[in-house]
From TrEMBL:
Protein name: DNA binding domain-containing protein, excisionase family
Top-level lineage group: Bacteria
Gene Ontology MF term list: DNA binding
Matches recorded under NCBIfam families: excise
Length: 129
């Protein structure tokens, strides 16, 4: 059984076109791509897959309050919005940590330069060692 529908196109540069281009590029590079329906909660197994971690790690996040969930009977479900919120917080924390480390390294380098400034000649000698 074949269903023929008229082709539809999205304007180049539209959010949908950009999304599809990014998804196709990810698939070409061997990256797993998944879609998430915001109105349907996910299981801990699905969350673990989306987060790239084990199911027990997801339960630890839920038990610690870092990942919101609710019960459906005796089973836990995670609202899609809570999963996205956790991913956003994790990304922001990771970016902040990278910035803090870069600032720390810069501060250490500045302190070393202030304590023991080296001439260009001395630096060249050290590089030869």
């Amino acid at each position: 059984m074949s269903c023929s529908m008229p082709p539809t196109t999205s304007p180049q540069g539209s959010p949908l076109a950009i999304l599809l281009e990014n998804m196709l590029a990810a698939l070409r590079n061997g990256v797993d791509v998944a879609s998430l329906s915001l109105d349907r909660p996910v299981t801990p197994n699905q969350a673990a897959t989306a987060l790239g971690m084990s199911r027990p790690s997801v339960y630890k996040l839920m038990d610690s309050g870092l990942l919101k969930f609710h019960y459906v009977g005796k089973d836990r479900r995670i609202p899609a919005a809570a999963l996205i919120d956790y991913l956003d917080r994790r990304e922001r924390a990771s970016a902040q940590m990278a910035e803090d480390l870069a600032n720390r390294d810069r501060t250490i380098a500045q302190a070393v330069d202030a304590i023991a400034p080296l001439s260009a000649e001395q630096i060249a000698e050290l590089k030869e060692l």
